[in-house]
């Protein structure tokens, strides 16, 4: 993906994504590749080192989540799922958007 494509997928600026990509470039975790669809906007791809780092991160995360899940009862997980689902729905509601709009700076 290009930096602008990544930024469009998140509620952050292109500049923020560019700063992250620059850090990853400095670490050798990503590199640029020519983009056949756009002459100036390069594609960002994980390097072999980046792919290995991401795989290691996923393994550590999976292990930690498995340990955590084994310590929480299925009933508690179901309750947490219900609460989080309700919160997501509430934050996505027209009522919540109307409330937050009241506190937004006026243009």
Task: Write structural notes for this entry.
This protein has 107 residues and is an alpha+beta fold. It has 2 domains: 1-71, Arc Repressor Mutant, subunit A (Orthogonal Bundle); 73-107. The chain is built from 5 helices and 2 strands; from the N terminus they run H-H-E-E-H-H-H. A two-stranded antiparallel ribbon has the order 1-2. A hairpin with a 2-residue loop joins strand 1 and strand 2. The longest helix is centred in the middle third of the chain and has 23 residues, at 48-70. The protein is flat and about 50 Å long. It starts with a helix and ends in a 5-residue tail after the last helix. The model has no long low-confidence stretch (mean pLDDT 91).
Topology diagram in text:
Layout: H1 3-8, H2 14-26, E1 30-35, E2 38-46, H3 48-70, H4 74-91, H5 94-102
Antiparallel strand pairs: 1-2
Distance between the termini: 33 Å
Name of the top-level CATH class of the largest domain? Mainly Alpha
Which word captures the global form? flat
Oligomer state equals single chain
Keywords:
107 residues, alpha+beta, Arc Repressor Mutant, subunit A, two-stranded antiparallel ribbon, 5 helices, 2 strands, 64% helix, flat
């Amino acid at each position: 993906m290009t930096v602008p494509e990544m930024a469009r997928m998140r509620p952050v600026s292109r500049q923020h994504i560019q700063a992250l990509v620059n850090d990853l470039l400095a670490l050798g975790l990503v590199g640029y590749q020519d983009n056949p669809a756009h002459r100036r906007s390069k594609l960002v791809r994980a390097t072999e080192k980046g792919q290995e780092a991401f795989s290691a991160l996923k393994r550590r995360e999976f292990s930690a989540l498995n340990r955590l899940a084994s310590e929480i009862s299925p009933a508690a997980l179901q309750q947490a799922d219900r609460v989080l689902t309700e919160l997501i729905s509430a934050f996505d509601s027209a009522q919540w958007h109307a409330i937050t709009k009241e506190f937004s700076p006026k243009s």
